[in-house]
């Protein structure tokens, strides 16, 4: 172990902020290189490097020099943070693609205009909070979790409103309810 490594470890254990500066000076370039190789995006790599240093600071009490060299520990945190950022980015882009391509009537021949107008008229008779839930789940094609996030509601509240909306639709027009369900399947 080099003198600078020992010094950085001591500073980390003492929660001295100079440790992060020294880590940055000594290890930022190789860590950035690893992160960039994983993310393949310079902006993301810069953000991940910063997040890595924050994690190092917060997890400094966990580091044990007997288990791993300092760079190995730093490398592992950087690698895991980069992989997490990639997964998060992929989930976000998948969600955006799905939302953009959703359409309740992708095939206009699937439901005729009369039925569509009847469905809209019946749904418009519902309370606004029920209409919003039906529109996000059935017409925008969101999952329950996505709809809850979109409407800024707890998941349980969203499910209760959905159940109540469907009950109310049944009472408004049992025949219409059957049409809606058959169109959505």
From TrEMBL:
Family: Belongs to the sigma-70 factor family. ECF subfamily.
Domain RNA polymerase sigma factor 70 region 4 type residues, every copy: 118-169
GO molecular function, one term: sigma factor activity
Keywords: DNA-directed RNA polymerase, Sigma factor, Transcription, Transcription regulation
GO CC annotation: DNA-directed RNA polymerase complex
InterPro entries: RNA_pol_sigma-70-like, RNA_pol_sigma-70_dom, RNA_pol_sigma70_r2, RNA_pol_sigma70_r4_t2, RNA_pol_sigma_r2, RNA_pol_sigma_r3/r4-like, WH-like_DNA-bd_sf
SUPFAM superfamilies: Sigma2 domain of RNA polymerase sigma factors, Sigma3 and sigma4 domains of RNA polymerase sigma factors
Name used for this protein in its record: DNA-directed RNA polymerase, sigma-70 region 2, ECF-type subfamily
Keyword rRNA processing: no
Domain RNA polymerase sigma-70 region: 23-91
């Amino acid at each position: 172990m080099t003198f600078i490594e020992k010094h950085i470890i001591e500073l980390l254990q003492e929660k001295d902020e100079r440790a992060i500066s020294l880590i940055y000076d000594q290890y930022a370039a190789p860590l950035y290189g690893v992160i960039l190789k994983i993310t393949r995006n310079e902006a993301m790599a810069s953000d991940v490097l910063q997040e890595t240093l924050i994690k190092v600071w917060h997890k400094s009490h966990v580091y044990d020099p007997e288990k791993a060299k300092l760079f190995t520990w730093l490398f592992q945190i950087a690698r895991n943070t980069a992989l997490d950022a990639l997964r998060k980015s992929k989930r976000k882009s998948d969600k955006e693609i799905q939302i953009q391509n959703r359409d309740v009537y992708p095939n206009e021949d699937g439901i005729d205009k009369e039925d569509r107008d009847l469905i809209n008229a019946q749904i418009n008779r519902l309370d606004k909070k029920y209409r919003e839930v039906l529109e996000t789940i059935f017409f925008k094609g969101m999952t329950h979790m996505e709809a809850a996030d979109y409407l800024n509601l707890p998941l349980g509240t969203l499910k209760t409103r959905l159940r109540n909306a469907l009950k109310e639709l049944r009472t408004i027009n049992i025949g219409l309810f059957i049409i809606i369900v058959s169109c959505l399947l």
